[in-house]
What does this fold into?
Amino acid sequence: MDSSSVKQSVMKQVLAEANLANARVLIEKLQENCFEKCVPKPGSSLSSSEQTCMTSCMEKYMAAWNQVNAAYINRIRQEQGNN
Amino acid sequence: MNAAQTGIENLDLEKLNDKDKTELRQFLANEQQRSQIQAQTHNLTQICWKKCVTGNIKGSKLDKGEEGCLANCVDRFLDINFLTMKHLNNMRS
It folds into this structure.
């Protein structure tokens, strides 16, 4: 392998691992927060309304993540402009 | 060829020339920054989710009020962050 393809391989692997790590944390947090919201009093089985709540909540949590990420990056840019 | 299967340990990093080394360093610095921002986003999302999404989950989309609340929540949390730093600095002197 030449220099360029070694570089490409390293980049590709770093990117894949970083994205996987990020997805893992997102899923962990999403589960924690949506479980709290959708299953306030755990019964003997998961009800259909709890299941519906969970699928909506997952999408909603991801939307919230994106919204927060955008607001955070916005603020970082602003602060950098002020310095 | 699948890079994820090859593993960095199997790559011959000695083969990198100076130009590619510099590019790789820059790439890694950017990735590190990206992952720090993502980590802080995870933290902020959890804090602001608890503050802004208070009702029952009715749909999979954020409503307008929640959207605005999340944006404000991030900004105010960071205000507090800066204020804390400033105050700690003042206490020192």
